[in-house]
Design brief:
The protein contains eleven helices and no strands. The protein is mainly alpha-helical. The radius of gyration is 19 Å and the shape is globular.
C-alpha cells in the first residue's frame, strides 16, 4: 500500500466520501432513468444497477488512491480466509436469532416513539423485497458493498488514527447516517458497532458480510410473514423463542469471545 495515503479517510473525509457516494448514485440513477425504456426496466428495478455502478465509481477512485488491492480489502489477516470462515460462522449463526429479535423490538420502539408520516410509509413500502431484483439488492449487494466501504475502507483507516472504540463508534455512526432516516439509524448504529468489533478482531470482511447478509435476509423474511399485520407496532415472539434465542446467543457469544480474545492473524494496515 502507498503509505502516504494509508490514513485516508479521516472522520471528515469519510463523511465527504459518504456524500460522494450519494452523489454518484444520484448521477448514475438519473442517467439510467432516462434510458429505462430501452432497458425495459421499472425505476425501482434499476436499484441494483445504480448501487453497483455508483459504488464502482467510488471504489475505483478510493482503491487507486490508497494503493489497496481487493485481496487486502476483503481479508488482510494472515489467518487463512477459510479458517476464519469455519471458526467464526457457526458462532455468528448462533447469535443471529437474539440479534434479530432484539433489533426488531428496537426498530418497532423507534417507530412507536416517532410515528411515520404517510410519505415515510410509502418510502419504506417501496423498499420492500417484493421482487427478485430487490431481494438481490437487500440480501446480497447491500451487505457486500456496505461492508467494503464502512468496515473495509472507513473503519480500516479509523483504527490506525483513533482509539479502538472511538473508531468503531464513528464508523457505526456514519453507517447509520447512510440510511438517512431515524427508523433505520439507531438499529444501523447498534449492529454497525458489532460489525465494527468483529472486523477489528479479525481484519476480515468475510464474517462481517456473512452476518450482514444473514441479518438482512431475516428482515426480509419477517416482512413477508408480517405482510398482513401492518397495524401491529411490536413483533410478537413467544417466551420460548426468547429463551432459546438467549441460550443460543450466549453460546455463540462465548464461542466468539474465545476465538477472538486475540485478534486473528497479523493486524493489517
Amino acid at each position: 500500500m502507498d503509505k502516504k495515503n494509508e490514513s485516508f479517510p479521516n472522520v471528515l473525509e469519510a463523511l465527504m466520501l459518504v456524500v460522494a457516494l450519494f452523489m454518484a448514485e444520484y448521477v448514475v440513477g438519473a442517467a439510467l432513468y432516462d434510458v429505462r425504456g430501452t432497458l425495459s426496466m421499472e425505476p425501482r428495478d434499476l436499484a441494483g444497477m445504480i448501487i453497483v455502478l455508483g459504488n464502482g465509481v467510488i471504489f475505483t477512485v478510493v482503491m487507486h488512491y490508497k494503493g489497496l488491492t481487493y485481496r487486502e480489502l476483503f481479508h488482510s489477516s494472515s489467518a487463512s480466509a477459510s479458517a476464519t470462515t469455519l471458526v467464526l460462522f457457526p458462532a455468528i449463526a448462533l447469535t443471529l436469532p437474539l440479534i434479530f429479535m432484539s433489533m426488531s423490538m428496537l426498530n418497532a420502539a423507534t417507530v412507536f416513539l416517532f410515528p411515520m408520516t404517510t410519505q415515510e410509509q410509502t418510502l419504506f413500502a417501496n423498499m420492500h423485497a417484493d421482487s427478485v431484483g430487490m431481494m438481490v439488492v437487500i440480501c446480497v449487494l447491500a451487505p457486500v458493498l456496505e461492508e467494503m466501504l464502512f468496515r473495509g475502507i472507513i473503519l480500516r483507516s479509523f483504527l490506525g488514527q483513533y482509539p479502538k472504540w472511538a473508531a468503531i463508534l464513528a464508523s457505526a455512526g456514519l453507517f447509520g447516517f447512510l440510511h438517512m432516516n431515524i427508523y433505520q439509524y439507531v438499529g444501523a448504529v447498534m449492529i454497525g458497532m458489532f460489525l465494527g468489533w468483529l472486523y477489528e478482531r479479525t481484519r476480515s470482511l468475510l464474517p462481517c458480510i456473512g452476518l450482514h447478509a444473514a441479518y438482512n435476509t431475516m428482515c426480509v423474511t419477517q416482512e413477508w410473514s408480517d405482510a398482513g399485520n401492518a397495524d401491529e407496532h411490536f413483533p410478537t415472539f413467544a417466551s420460548s423463542s426468547w429463551l432459546m434465542a438467549m441460550l443460543l446467543g450466549a453460546a455463540g457469544a462465548a464461542m466468539l469471545y474465545r476465538a477472538l480474545q486475540v485478534p486473528a492473524g497479523r493486524r493489517g494496515g
